[in-house]
Structure to design on (603 residues):
């Protein structure tokens, strides 16, 4: 198999990475840089410029140059340049082609496959457009992965714990994407996403440019496009300079006009305070949407070029005082992660397999007896469409006829009311003891993963007889050994009867601790028990049960340790805090420019 590359196809900048010598490596472009601006420009001579030259031409040839087209992927938008029409995926294809060529030069071998990341909120149309763009660039798109999952993968390679829920805050050139990501065992799941489609680095450039103009008696809006471009460019350069030192001189030279101003981080915060205030809303939204995981968020990972701004990091620290903030190479994180995933896809031995979650696009169910029309079996859903994968759901069915000899579980995929309208994937037949109708029951469990492998387990409740069938529903052919490996992975999600006893044991343990503790600790114990019960009885998602079990066990153990230690005089109110903060480490060393208090600047 040839090399697979990972690609972060960004709105502002794109990057490529590859798994090499046991790590994810970024691929440099011909300028020796990792970031290739996602810009395309058309010359009169038929030449297509991509990357840095195209970005320069955005200012010199605005009518022949385009950028920010990623925003319109999957829409009908058409760009007209030099009398020709281009769709967003065609423009993206030019960028992908450039990255592919850079990778081939760097690796010295042909590259025909890629893993490409997209924002978690991208819909099916937008994802298909990305796939098409890849194909237009001569790349088979092995997999589309979500940007926050890619960032999470990169973090895990940098020594993150196996079991953690954290916030990914991605502030790029034009958008802010906030996601709540959960890692447990080797599964990475996105719990909630939110964002602001009109908040990013370029908004800061505009604020700085506006301020600069005001100070020089100019009105930004009434300047020519070209002049605006020149000032924005200087503003951007000044902004980036502030990530290295506390004060920079912003200079603008444009024909007759010459001007300069000193810009500091403090000034930057002052002039762009509304932008900072807008950052808070999506963070609050995801934390609320992912309520169940609230207790576990201990960390925020800052991603995207604009997180290089010290003021942004400082604001985040203010907003999330209890979280550990990681902001290493923010603009490379997603690309690093795609490189890791490319390694996984190449089945490299030096990297552990990881499951990234996705959503099940269709319903999986079984046919059930229709009282009103015996010939027309009804569809009964077991895994609903849009369930987060991998997932495992159980349902119980009873016999419909007197003294029937066996039960047939027909497996269907689709949304139709009558089973026959859906796709029939397979059937499992089990014998049941002869009994009047309704007396015998079978428990059916569907476990489905992102690669399209469905495991159907059927158990006759009275005799304990079990049957299993593994069905592959995904596109293409999956090798038998791959299926075997997947089944073993998914096996971990299942509960054996022993597992149920274990759950009972955990509940009893929690109840005892509840009785033994007081105050905040008791409240925390109650909340966790309540959540565990909810997952166990209402959600019934076996993967979630396993995850929750592992976490609650750790928590109870820490409570137990505390109780053993109680004589030493620690305040019971503290332990809940201590438990949540047990992994607080030093933040990345960096200059602290400002103190925030209630979203306002303090002097
Ligand atoms: P996207 O994901 O939208 O493609 P990136 O993550 O590459 O974007 O971020 C691009 C943005 O980051 C631009 O607005 C750029 O000005 C900003 N940026 C890059 N480096 C710095 C820096 N050192 N300081 C401040 N902003 C920066
Ligand atoms: Mg990005």
């Amino acid at each position: 198999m040839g090399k697979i590359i990972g690609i972060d196809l960004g709105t502002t900048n794109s990057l490529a990475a590859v798994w090499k010598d046991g790590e994810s490596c970024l691929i440099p472009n011909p300028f020796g840089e990792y970031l290739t601006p996602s810009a395309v420009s058309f010359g009169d001579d038929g030449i297509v410029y991509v990357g840095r030259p195209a970005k320069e031409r955005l200012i010199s040839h605005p009518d022949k140059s385009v950028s920010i087209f990623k925003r319109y992927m999957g829409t009908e938008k058409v760009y007209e340049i030099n009398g020709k029409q281009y769709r967003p995926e065609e423009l993206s294809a030019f960028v992908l082609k450039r990255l592919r060529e850079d990778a081939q030069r760097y690796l010295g071998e042909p590259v025909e496959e890629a893993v490409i990341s997209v924002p978690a909120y991208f819909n099916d149309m937008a994802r298909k457009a990305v796939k098409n763009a890849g194909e237009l660039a001569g790349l088979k798109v092995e997999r589309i992965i979500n940007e926050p999952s890619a960032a999470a993968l990169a973090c895990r390679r940098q020594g993150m714990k196996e079991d953690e829920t954290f916030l990914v805050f991605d502030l790029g050139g034009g958008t802010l994407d906030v996601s709540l990501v959960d890692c447990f065992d080797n599964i990475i799941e996105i719990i909630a996403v939110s964002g602001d489609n009109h908040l990013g680095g370029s908004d800061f450039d505009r604020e700085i440019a506006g301020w600069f103009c005001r100070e020089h008696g100019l009105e930004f809006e009434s300047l020519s496009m070209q002049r605006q471009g020149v000032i924005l460019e200087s503003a951007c350069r000044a902004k980036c300079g502030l990530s290295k030192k506390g004060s920079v001189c912003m200079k603008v030279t444009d024909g007759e006009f010459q001007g300069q101003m000193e810009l500091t981080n403090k000034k930057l915060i002052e002039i762009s305070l509304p932008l900072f205030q807008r950052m808070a809303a999506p963070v609050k939204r995801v934390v609320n949407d992912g309520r169940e995981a609230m207790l576990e968020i201990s960390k925020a990972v800052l991603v995207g070029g604009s997180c290089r701004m010290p003021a942004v990091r400082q604001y985040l620290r203010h907003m999330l005082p209890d979280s550990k903030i990681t902001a290493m190479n923010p603009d490379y994180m997603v690309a690093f992660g795609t490189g890791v995933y490319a390694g996984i896809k190449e089945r490299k031995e030096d990297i552990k397999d990881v499951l990234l979650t996705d959503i099940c696009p269709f319903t999986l169910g079984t046919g059930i007896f229709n009282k009103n029309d015996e010939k027309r079996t009804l569809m009964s859903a077991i895994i609903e469409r849009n369930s987060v994968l991998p997932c495992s759901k159980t349902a119980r069915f009873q016999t419909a006829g007197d003294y029937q000899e066996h039960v047939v579980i027909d497996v269907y995929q689709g949304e139709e009311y009558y089973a026959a309208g859906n796709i029939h994937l397979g059937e499992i037949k089990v014998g049941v003891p002869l009994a009047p109708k309704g007396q015998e029951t079978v428990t059916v469990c569907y476990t489905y993963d992102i690669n399209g492998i469905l495991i159907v387990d059927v158990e006759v409740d009275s005799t304990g007889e079990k049957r299993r069938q593994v069905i592959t529903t995904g596109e293409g052919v999956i090798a038998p050994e791959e299926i075997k490996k997947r089944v073993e992975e998914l096996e971990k999600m299942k509960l054996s009867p022993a597992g149920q006893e274990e759950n009972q044991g955990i509940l009893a343990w929690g109840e005892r601790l509840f009785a033994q503790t007081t105050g905040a600790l008791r409240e925390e114990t109650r909340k966790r028990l309540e959540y565990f019960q909810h997952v166990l009885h209402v959600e019934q998602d076996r993967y979630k049960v396993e995850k929750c079990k592992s976490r609650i066990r750790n928590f109870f153990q820490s409570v137990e340790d505390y109780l053993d230690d109680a004589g030493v005089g620690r305040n019971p109110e503290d332990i809940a805090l201590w438990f949540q903060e047990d992994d607080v480490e030093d933040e990345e060393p960096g200059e602290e420019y400002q103190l925030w208090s209630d979203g306002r600047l303090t002097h």
About this structure: DSSP finds 15 helices and 31 strands in the chain. The pocket of adenosine-5'-diphosphate (ligand 1) is lined by residues 10-13, 35, 172-174, 200-202, 236, 239-240, 243, 304-306, 308-309, 331 (CB under 6 Å). Confidence is low (pLDDT under 50) at residues 567-603.
